[in-house]
Write a structure and sequence with these properties.
two-stranded antiparallel sheet; 3 helices; 2 strands; about 15% strand; about 60% helix; alpha+beta; elongated; about 90 residues
């Protein structure tokens, strides 16, 4: 079981416990989110919402979901750039 310490804006500190690995949680969330956000427009909209929630300190903000969205967005952006550079080579 891992333990994280988070410092709040008011200077107080909270402790969070998790019984799983952070990386496995991110991979699980990425798999789920990749199904939900098939298009890049929806993915970027969700990422903007996560950024707003993080800045506002909203109660339902999920940092693991935000990180998974960032990874998905960076992967989809890199994939789109490769396809544009080399042309879509989906021959089937």
């Amino acid at each position: 079981m891992a333990q994280d310490h988070h410092r709040l804006r008011n200077g107080k500190e909270i402790r969070a416990f998790r019984s799983f690995d952070r990386e496995s949680d991110l991979l699980r969330k990425m798999a789920n989110l990749s199904i939900i956000f098939a298009g890049t427009a929806e993915l970027h909209r969700a990422l903007r919402q996560a950024r707003r929630a993080a800045r506002a300190g909203e109660r339902g903000y999920d940092p693991a979901r935000h990180a998974a969205l960032l990874r998905l967005a960076s992967g989809s952006t890199a994939r789109n750039q490769r396809e544009q550079r080399h042309g879509a080579t989906n021959v089937g």
